[in-house]
Design goal:
The complex is a heterodimer of chains A (about 110) and B (about 110). Chain A is an all-beta fold and about 110 residues long. Chain A contains no helices and eleven strands. In chain A, the strands form two sheets. In chain A, strands 2, 4, 5, 6, 9, 10 and 11 form a seven-stranded mixed sheet that branches. Chain A has a four-stranded antiparallel sheet with strand order 1-3-8-7, with no helix packed on it. The N and C termini of chain A lie far apart (about 30 Å). In chain B, strands 2, 4, 5, 9, 10 and 11 form a six-stranded mixed sheet that branches. In chain B, strands 1-3-8-7-6 form a five-stranded antiparallel sheet, with no helix packed on it. Chain B is an all-beta fold. Chain B is globular. The chains are: A mainly beta (about 110), B mainly beta (about 110). At the A-B interface, β4, β5 and β9 of A face β5, β9 and β10 of B.
Amino acid sequence: ETGVTQSPTHLIKTRGQQVTLRCSSQSGHNTVSWYQQALGQGPQFIFQYYREEENGRGNFPPRFSGLQFPNYSSELNVNALELDDSALYLCASSLGQGDYEQYFGPGTRLTVT
Amino acid sequence: RKEVEQDPGPFNVPEGATVAFNCTYSNSASQSFFWYRQDCRKEPKLLMSVYSSGNEDGRFTAQLNRASQYISLLIRDSKLSDSATYLCVRFSGGYNKLIFGAGTRLAVHP
């Protein structure tokens, strides 16, 4: 196992609601990246946090936001949920911001109805 | 054009077969490439890095062709346990992100 944990495992929300997903990084890792994986697609980069600051963002609207805490754990918040937000949300931790070796958590499967 | 493109498959092969996947990428400045493996409803896991000189790990061989901008993965002597989706990945150092292809599904049957 990678040592990266995510909660919850599964979640069902209604369109328009808000959701918060959580990630605990591997011990010693100060960088967390979030990815969205729709069914049948590869993961898509949402954003990365390095030492509590956003350090890069993919092509996602502002209603996708995040936080990183002093212990390097992280949250992904999605406001005004849309049906297309249904996906597997993966977080990955790495030793540093430029480190390509990213260790993925098991993901949170979000269903929006 | 997608940054990383793969044949989605599925590739259905018998045990013991040799199977090869290709992947093309569009950014000629890309430096780092990888193959990840993803089992059904699980997280992606790093399988191996890809170098111009080739990289072999047991039954798996990865190759990078920069001139043609494609990456390959060869699996020899396929096992049932090799059944998974194989994701071709480019690391974008400028944006600190992994860029994934959509994946190629492999099904190995007895």
